Amino acid sequence: MTNNYGLIMAGGIGSRFWPISTPEHPKQFLDILGVGKSLLQLTFERLSRTILREQIFILTNMRYAQQVSDQLPDLPVENILCEPERKNTAPSLAYASAKIYTKNPNATLVVLPSDHLILNEHRFAELLEKAIQVAKTEKLLVTLGISPSRPDTGYGYIKFDQQHIGHFGKATEVRQFCEKPSLEMAKSFLDAGNYFWNAGIFVWQAETILSALREFQPALAALFLDDLSAYNSIEEKEFIGNAFRLCSDISIDYAVLEHAKNVSVVLSDFDWSDLGTWGSLNEHLSKDRFGNAVVGKNVFLFESENCLVNISPNKLVLLDGLKDYIIIESNNVFMVLKSENEQKLKEYLNSVTQADFFRNGQN
User: 323 and 226 share a domain?
Assistant: First the structure.
């Protein structure tokens, strides 16, 4: 295990979980599940089944460094890697991979988001071990593909050979990465059986991903990889600041994975959600006999069905006659949203955030 390193991505702002998630305190630092631990803390504990705790790094934005330290007090401060600007995942992973490579040229990296929900953690650990083995022995870029349970248009998909349908736990060649599809296309993917959700969980040797960046993104590689001596030195902060200032905004999928030929997918069957929306969270919460999911100590529902309710524990709420609504209270904000309109939340926020309440800094 000494050559295995974890890299948890924790720099997003989680805008689709408004009003609980805000740019100042985004969803990865919140106890969204109502279990007494944040998503970041749950992810760290899950990964520590496979990776030594002292070899887990958190990649975040500079503004969140203190929140990471507060929530993971035993994590060495040098394991908190701060991106000075948001430039998407390719620059961030170039930085983190190069830094860990200079510590250990034989490092194998497990890269995963901080805000996903994984229920069957034992099965997840098994498949992660498989991905690590493949990444090490075959020098491949490995991703975990999740067996889809519905024709979801919010996820990217990974295509693999039909002969491997049903072979869970197998690592097989990626034939194509597919962008978020239309509903009809998503239905065809589900019917075909050889399209899995792209979970954004990657495993690769540091040397392998750095070589791929040099091949497919030479301009990016020149900024981050031409002078590896700057890493883990007093020059690192200035070096990284300059690299982020000059680099392009690009995801690792566009930058590398869609071009590389040495990409493999481990066909995975653990229960997974990216918790991208309130609706995705609702699928995993326990419900009463009327289909209501409630997070909050003092919530009383009457004549209400299929509602998701998340209320601060110090608030008393009575709800009557609601059906298919999302009701959220946090940060002096109260939201009542029809479940069917959830995809419009970002659109609504463009208008809401122009209100005097926000301009006066009261959020």
Answer: no
What Cα–Cα distance (Å) separates residue 319 from each residue in 79, 287, 323, 339, 346? 45, 16, 10, 16, 25
Residue 23's pLDDT is 83
pLDDT at 356: 63
Same-domain check for residues 273 and 297? no
Q: pTM for this structure?
A: 0.87
pLDDT single digits (tens) 242-273: 999 999 999 999 999 999 999 999 999 988 88
Number of folded domains in the chain?
A: 2
Does residue 290 share a domain with residue 248?
A: no
Residue-wise pLDDT for 314-348, tens only, equals 899 999 999 999 999 987 889 999 998 887 888 88
Q: In whole angstroms, what is the distance from residue 194 CA to residue 172 CA?
A: 11
Specify the DSSP element, H or E, that contains 145.
strand 141-146
Say which residue, 210 or 351, is predicted with more confidence: 210
Please, which residues have CB within 8 angstroms of residue 278's CB and are 6 or more apart in sequence?
A: 16, 17, 308, 326, 328, 337, 342
Structural domain of 323: 285-359
114, with CB counted inside 10 A (0-12, 13-18, 19+), is buried
Using a 10 angstrom Cβ sphere, with 0-12 exposed, 13-18 middle and 19 or more buried, the burial of residue 213 is: buried
Is the distance from CB of 339 to CB of 325 less than 8 angstroms?
Answer: yes
The encoded tokens of residue 327 equal 């009701």
Structure tokens at 124: 């997840």
Q: What share of the chain is helix, strand, coil (3-state, %, to 5)?
A: 40, 25, 35
Q: Is 170 exposed, middle or buried (0-12, 13-18, 19+ CB in 10 A)?
A: middle
DSSP, collapsed to helix, strand or coil, labels residue 15 as helix
Q: What are the tens digits of pLDDT across the range 74-103?
A: 999 999 999 999 999 999 999 999 999 999
Three-class SS state of 276: coil
